[in-house]
């Protein structure tokens, strides 16, 4: 593909707006750009590469035009309904929602980890869950070297992970107003509740992290558990990862593996209080790792602190990177 006709579904949302920024920054070769959102945003103006574009209402006819790739970011219900319509019109869909991620014939791609899986797409490609993306970027080089046996994820996820509604709840909560998006106040609080509760008492977010990690690393024998927590941080998700490997390792080998890995930056100098934080990683595209230390309570155990910007690497940047893989076809 040379210059492509690109559509963005959910162009007015938190992720949609960041698509626009990332596409500009990466000089993505666009011929025509189509911006879709709900009826409420019809007629809104959005600037891309100094040119003005008008947001159109998404309908079943939106893809009856020459569109090569559509970046979807308008929630699962919209993806379930409209991604097949787009695909049947010859559009390649890269979907940010969880609607298609676990379908067998839908590749779930993190370009630093499993770019080769994109080859088997049948018109829909899925972008993984934001916390999962940053974790697998850090875990892949370690899995290759020392074979991971078990992972314990504990997340500290920012309110922007819930879109514009999450940010509003935090800002309103700081002024003692009641939350609308969350069941409890998020200002000055932590909620061990991201997405809905399932029958087995896990949240859907926790199950996404467990199942998506296995699919992306192509290792269904991995033992994984997760606790996902919403914290009063605007941007950037942090994850404490406890890992048990099959093979022994030296801490120096862990540093070396991260230094050699694509998309990973080590920030780990406790003598100078250096470790990644959500604020220090905001608006960047890399995955940051710190607090690298052995877990002495098990054989071959390791603890990591992994931080990334959930709207960029966790969503928009990863999606645009997937689109860039398609350009190489
Ligand atoms: N935020 C994150 O960290 C993150 C990370 C990874 C994946 N995601 C996924 O990305 C998606 C969007 O997230 P977000 O954070 O950008 O949410 P958001 O800020 O709430 O934006 C939602 C977008 O969807 C559009 N939309 C809503 N109803 C629609 C309809 N009926 N037809 C067409 N468009 C419609 C909205 O348009 P209007 O403005 O017109 O309502 C808006 O553009 C979700 O699936 C989310 O799970 C988010």
What is the residue-averaged pLDDT?
97
| Strand element count | 14
Give the count of structural domains.
Answer: 2
- The percent range for strand residues is 15-25%
Overall radius of gyration = 20 Å
Verbal overview:
With 329 residues, this protein is an alpha/beta fold. The chain has two domains: 4-127 and 315-327, NAD(P)-binding Rossmann-like Domain (Rossmann fold), CATH 3.40.50; 131-310, Dihydrodipicolinate Reductase, domain 2, CATH 3.30.360.10. The chain is built from eight helices and 14 strands. It has helices spanning 14-25, 76-88, 130-146, 164-174, 204-217, 251-260, 278-281, 312-327, and strands spanning 4-9, 30-37, 45-48, 51-54, 56-57, 69-72, 92-95, 124-126, 148-157, 223-230, 237-245, 264-266, 287-295, 301-308. The strands form three sheets. The chain has a six-stranded parallel beta sheet, with helices on both faces. The protein has a six-stranded mixed beta sheet with strand order 10-9-11-14-13-12. Helix 1 (14-25) links the parallel strand 1 and strand 2 (30-37). The longest helix has 17 residues, at 130-146.
């Amino acid at each position: 593909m040379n210059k492509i006709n690109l559509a963005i579904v959910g162009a007015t949302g938190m992720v949609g707006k960041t698509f626009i920024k990332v596409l500009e920054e990466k000089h993505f070769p666009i011929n025509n750009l189509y911006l879709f959102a709900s009826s409420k945003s019809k007629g809104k103006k959005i600037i891309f590469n100094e040119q003005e574009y008008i947001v159109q209402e998404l309908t079943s006819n939106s893809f009856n035009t020459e569109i090569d790739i559509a970046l979807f970011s308008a929630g699962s219900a919209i993806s379930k309904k409209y991604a097949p319509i787009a695909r049947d019109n010859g559009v390649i869909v890269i979907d940010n929602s969880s609607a298609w991620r676990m379908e067998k014939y839908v590749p779930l791609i993190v370009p630093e980890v499993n770019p080769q899986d994109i080859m088997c797409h049948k018109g829909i490609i899925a972008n993984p869950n934001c916390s999962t993306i940053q974790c697998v970027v850090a875990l892949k080089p370690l899995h290759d070297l020392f074979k991971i046996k078990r992972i314990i994820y504990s997340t500290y996820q920012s309110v922007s992970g819930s879109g514009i509604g999450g940010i509003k709840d935090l800002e309103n909560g700081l002024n003692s107003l009641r939350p609308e998006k969350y069941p409890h106040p998020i200002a000055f609080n932590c909620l061990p509740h991201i997405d809905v509760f399932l029958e087995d008492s896990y949240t859907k977010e926790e199950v996404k992290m467990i199942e998506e990690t296995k699919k992306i690393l192509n290792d269904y024998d991995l033992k994984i558990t997760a606790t996902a927590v919403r914290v009063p941080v605007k941007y950037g998700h942090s994850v404490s990862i406890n890992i048990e490997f099959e093979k022994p390792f030296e801490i120096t080998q862990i540093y070396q593996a991260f230094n050699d890995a694509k998309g990973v930056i080590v920030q780990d100098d406790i003598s100078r209080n250096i470790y990644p934080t959500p604020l220090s990683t905001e608006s960047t595209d890399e995955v940051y790792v710190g607090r690298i230390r052995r877990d002495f309570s098990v054989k071959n155990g390791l603890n990591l602190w992994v931080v990334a910007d959930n709207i960029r690497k966790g969503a928009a940047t990863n999606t645009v990177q997937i689109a860039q893989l398609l350009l190489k076809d």
